Amino acid sequence: MKIRRLICAVMLLVLVVSTGCWDRREIETLAFISATAIDRPERGDGIRVSVQIIKPFAFGPDDPGDLQEQPIWLTSAEGRTAGEASANLRDESPRTPFWAHNIHLVLGEDFAREGVSDILGFFTRDPETRRRVHMMVVREARGEDLLQAEFELHRLPALGLERLFLTAERFIGTTLRREVHDFAIDLETEGIEPVIPALRIVERPPGGDIHGELQRDEIYRSIRLEGAAVFSGDQLVGWMDRGEARGVAWTRNEIQSTKIIIPHPAQENEHATLRVINANSEVDVGLTLGRPAVRVEIDVCADLVELTAPMDPFLDYHRWRAMEKELESAVEEEVRAALSAAQREYSSDVFGFGYHLARLHPEAWEDYRERWPEEFRNLPVHVQVRGEIKESGLLMRAPEVEDGE
Q1: What are residue 96's DSSP bridge partners?
Q2: Domain coordinates of the chain in residue numbers?
Q3: What is the rounded distance in angstroms from the CA atom of residue 220 to the CA atom of residue 146?
């Protein structure tokens, strides 16, 4: 009986001391990071990590317009590595920085040109960071400067930037949104180079610094999407404008929807607007006399949404077909512009033609893998676009307006 009681007492003691979470972290002790910027220190070597930390007490149940508190706190720390710099953030924060809610990773141009592999290990290995963080480069500025940008329609800047990317990706197609996971895969995959979005800081007079300000009536600094940042390996080598970035998206089958302006088929100096509703591309790399050659086929389906001058397209098949030809030319022109920039200016295979060669002709790839950048520069690429305009909307032709007397 005594042994039984002793066993029961020990079991009760074990249950008491083992309850709860030994490694718990209360929400009141965490500083939630929403965006991160990486730069080189202004003096010396190492890494400078800047973060936007959300102030939860700045958000309330009442009308957001009545809130006086700035919703974010900006702070920075430096270290020999990204991991050390992130640890040094604790020197200024009364709460523990928490990375799981980080949305964006902003690279300063100078840092990106030197090479970004220094920070990839931290963002792919640390158990608290996520690989789904979106990467981008800010042109002609430091990454920490972009963290001061704001949006009129979003109180939290990180969410405003997220909505900006979603809108551009879904309806314009001129940005190539990439995550840390995508960048790391492209960096480690033979025959393809990374390409990520490029942004520019837009200063608005009178200018200023948002540190310490609780309430303002105007935005000092905002953000504009600027096409794409082109990499060779882990180093930034150049830029593509919006049209060239969309040319890459056409080729990589990443267009969801976009609008294209073409010449009016019947009247000079007038235009028609087409909304692309479906686009598919296929890339084939073959061998001609032992040398690689690329064929890109793109099928584009669009609706007619605007005519700046009257025309009834259903009364003239040739004009309808002329608009489809203009659609094909517009898409091909953007692809050609992207090819020219990638091949002649940067020798960077952001299209992944080398990857297709390695997959389809592995023996030939062994001959070209060491000198692929030079081969890619002179790689022949045949582009074929097939355009189709399906609908003209409920309005069969644009209304004619008679001149008043």
Answers
A1: 30
A2: 26-240, 242-405
A3: 12
Which range, 34-48, 92-106, 117-131, is most confident?
Answer: 34-48
| Separation CA 35–CA 104 (nearest Å) | 5
Continuous segment of H or E residues that includes residue 42: none
pLDDT tens per residue across span 252-308:
999 988 999 999 888 888 898 999 999 999 999 999 888 999 999 999 999 988 888
Q: What is the DSSP string of 73-127?
A: EEEEEEESSHHHHHHHGGGT-SSEEE-TT--EEEEEHHHHHH-SHHHHHHHHH-T
Beta strands across the sheet bearing 291-307? 258-263, 271-288, 291-307, 381-389
234 vs 17, more confident: 234
- Could you give the CA distance from residue 227 to residue 243 in angstroms, rounded to a whole number? 8
pLDDT band at 65 (very low <50, low <70, confident <90, very high): very low
pLDDT at 12: 61
The answer to whether 357 touches 364, Cβ cutoff 8 Å, is yes
**CA-derived radius of gyration, the chain:** 27
Helix axes 117-125, 180-188, angle to 10 degrees: 120
Q: How far apart are CA 260 and CA 281, in angstroms?
A: 17
> Averaged over 237-254, what is the pLDDT?
95
Q: Kindly tell me the burial class for residue 331, based on how many C-beta atoms sit within 10 Å of its own C-beta (0-12, 13-18, 19 or more).
A: buried
The whole-angstrom separation of Cα 224 and Cα 280 is 28
Given a contact cutoff of 8 angstroms between Cβ atoms, the answer to whether 128 and 138 are in contact is no
CA atoms within 13 A on the CB side of 323: 32
Distance, in Å, from the CA atom of 137 to the CA atom of 227, rounded to the nearest integer, reads 10
For residue range 385-395, list pLDDT tens digits in order.
999 998 765 45
CATH 3.30.300.210 fits 242-405, yes or no: yes
Would you say 97 and 29 are in contact if contact means Cβ atoms under 8 Å apart? Answer: no
> What is the β-pairing status of strands 30-39 and 104-108?
parallel
